[in-house]
Amino acid sequence: MSKINFLKPDRTNLNTFLYLGSFLFLISFLDVFFNSFFNLNLTGFLPNFLSFVLPLVLGFIGLYFIRIEYSGIKRLDLLNKHINTNNFNAVLSLLIIFVIIKSIPPILSWFVVDASFAGDSKDVCTGTGACWTYIKVWMRRFMYGMYPNAEQWRINLSFISLVLLGSIGYFATDKFKKYLTLYYVVIYPLIAFLFIFFFISGGPVFFDFSYGIIAAILSIIIGFFIPGRFKFYYFLIVPLALYIILKYFLFFEEYIELGKLDGLNWVETGAWGGLSLTFIISFFCLIFCFPIGMAFALGRRSDFPLIRYISVGFIEFWRGVPLITVLFMSAVMFPMFLPEDFFIDKLVRAIIAISLFEAAYVAEVIRGGLQALPRGQYEAAKSLGMGYWKMHIFVILPQALKLVIPGIANTFLALVKDTPLIFVVGLLEIVGMLNLAKTNPEWLGFAMEGYVFAAIIFWIICYAMSKYSYNLEQKYKTDR
Amino acid sequence: MNLKLKDIVPQLITVIAVVLIFGFFTYNAQINMENRGIDFGYGFLSQESSFDVQFSLIEYDGSHSYFRAYLVGLLNTILVSVIGIIIATILGVIVGVARLSPNYLINKFAAFYVEFFRNIPLLLQIFFWYFAALRALPLPQDAEAIFGVFFLTIKGLYVPAFIWQNFSIFFYSLVAAVIAIIVIRIHAKKVQENQGKQIPVFFISLGLIFILPLLSFLIGGVKLSFEVPVLKQLATTSFIYEGGVSLPPELIALTLSLSLYTATFIAECVRAGIQGVGKGQKEAAASIGLTPNQVLKLVIMPQALRIIIPPTTNQYLNLTKNSSLAAAIAYPDLVLVFAGTALMQTGKAIEIVSITMFTYLTLSISISILMNWYNKRIAIQEK
């Protein structure tokens, strides 16, 4: 056995250092472990400060001893490479390990061990842990807001059907794949709107919209026989004209009781709330803000100076103000701008406000994608004789949108995270409901549980969305 | 003139549409205001506001004007934004660098922090800190002192106040130090460009910024003392701290959540920036004999900053705009004081909301102009 220099661990005395180092590290680990899990202080005989620092010092010396380069032991080398490269890293690693060990027991006991789950009144919550009973009792309110209990199946049914209808894309055969864009951009949002308007709301004006659908379908069918040159003007005029004719000249109502849904009570939007409202708002804003944003992105890159200035003004205005003031505007200022007998529901106003706000962000993201495309793409499309719209729809936008998937996903994430702000207009989604429940005199003092619950829900939603966008990005990644 | 009809018509249609929409809105607004007997005008700004604000940086009470109330709100907004930006930047840079650490634990810890805080709505975080976490703090009479001078209680954080004597001399010495540093930097750059010699600017600056103010203490007669907050009993169960500076819990909750939230985004910007500098740059710099410090300072940072600054500016803007969430926890910022209380009292919806929006617009545009200027300065000068 050669001479051991304890200040310089090396390979010659590998085993000695290995055993010594691991032993010291183990002691420090166990000390913290017992201290935190069993409330046992192994080093209690030492003065306070020393007892506190001792595990760190021991662990540090231990890690120092086992920091031997090219030891030939695979695991040791990996360990050294990952958490033990130098003194500074060793201390940081130790601190992180100790913080994790120290924080597990209190968190675990608050969440599970000391928490109360059973019962349905405040009396069961006597322990020091969380009171999940509170969440259980208020679950319906957190999910559906003030929506009447007896009617909540309407929300459930709508959401389930919408999820099912939305997943059609996965099962579509190749033959129908080309219609998917049309389906998702036009038909699906329309169905969703109808569901929410007639089913969740129990809306009274069924006829208006059935006329709208009939007019749309009729004009699309006729549209197939219209020569391409006139298609644009055709779709500009005919659907609206058909709708007006149907509504004001044919008087369907007097002949047929078309699709009248008896027995569905009207639930005003003020009673909507909870997580379902978060979904509704996110969904509609997402649908609206995308085309608006795309239009302004194209407008900002337009060759017409006036259109460009208007787009720039729009985008910069919405990007420069906080959402909360936009909602303030929609709540107190916007009604002043409308004719007196003209009333727009506050949920609709909020959705319009959020959509316009997010559209500006979407526009900037899409503009980034448009700018990133090489000029050659535009020139190639033009040289094939494509006009502005053809060029953008078939060549430019598909490529640009692919490029900006992460940016769009981030904007949508921001949108979901912004929905709690609608408390400004008096709508209470899940965070708003939490604040309401917290002030209930029977359930005072459980703010923490509520916020943790909502945080978990939002975290899952947002994390899933960001992972999904990452997958999309990978899927559509084209090497260029 | 080569104006084609094809070019004019779409623009004309757009402009007419925009004008029509705005005309429609103004027309309705006029009718509505006439019907309700409201007159349009900004004259109310000079009227007496007759409401109080809890926390204000400038002297303010109910007898001051609405304009003064607006200033109070604006200053509170700026205060939160500036503190938030400073903390978020420091935290964001640390976490961003930690995300690139070869140390597995540090790396994962930073990743956990980023993924955790940025996927939870900011408003929820503000509520959490304000209604749940800070409410668990002790009452003033039970609070234990931190370092003997700070008191963290449910009513806010009490910190000692600085009592200055001859503050102006101290201030001038600080200004002198800053000017000296700028001069030295310019000189050093010139020397390096002409002679290739490097002057240790950093250490000289560090020395200057400490020594000059220190001299002002020793020679200039500047004196600094601390006023430590003292517990005072108001009634049998009501206690309060007197003296020192008190930071309201709203401010603490707001800065905490704003900076924790924004730091995650800044961290990602920093990470992307450092990763964006090619490995070859580092190796090339090392191969021409630069020391690791020089590599970082002269090669990596200038390039990384170019990538980092534009998105980080956006985050600063976001933080400033997000500070308007203060209204949710009754921190008297611009939105709460002006668009909230003042609007309630005067009913001047259009005027007040437009002033508020215009203020935020000015704030964000000025930050972005400043940052664009800086960005242009450090951008690659292509020939």
Structure, described:
The complex is a heterodimer of chains A (480) and B (383). With 480 residues, chain A is mainly α. Chain A folds into 3 domains: 11-113, no CATH class; 137-147 and 268-475, MetI-like fold (Orthogonal Bundle); 204-263, no CATH class. Chain A is built from 20 helices and 1 strand. In chain A, helix 10 (206-223) runs antiparallel to helix 11 (228-250) and helix 16 packs antiparallel against helix 17 (388-403). Chain A starts with 13 loop residues before the first helix and ends in a 5-residue tail after the last helix. Mean pLDDT of chain A is 82; it is low at 255-261. Chain B is α+β, with helices and mostly antiparallel strands. Chain B has a domain at 66-140 and 245-378: MetI-like fold (Orthogonal Bundle). Chain B contains 11 helices and 8 strands. Chain B has helices at residues 5-36, 66-99, 104-118, 122-133, 167-195, 201-218, 249-276, 279-287, 292-322, 334-346, 349-378; strands at 145-146, 150-153, 156-159, 161-165, 223-227, 230-233, 239-242, 245-247. In chain B, strand 6 and strand 7 form a beta hairpin. In chain B, helix 5 (167-195) packs antiparallel against helix 6. Chain B is globular, with a radius of gyration of 27 Å. The two termini of chain B are 36 Å apart. The model of chain B has no long low-confidence stretch (mean pLDDT 84).
Summarize this, please?
Chain A is mainly α and 480 residues long.
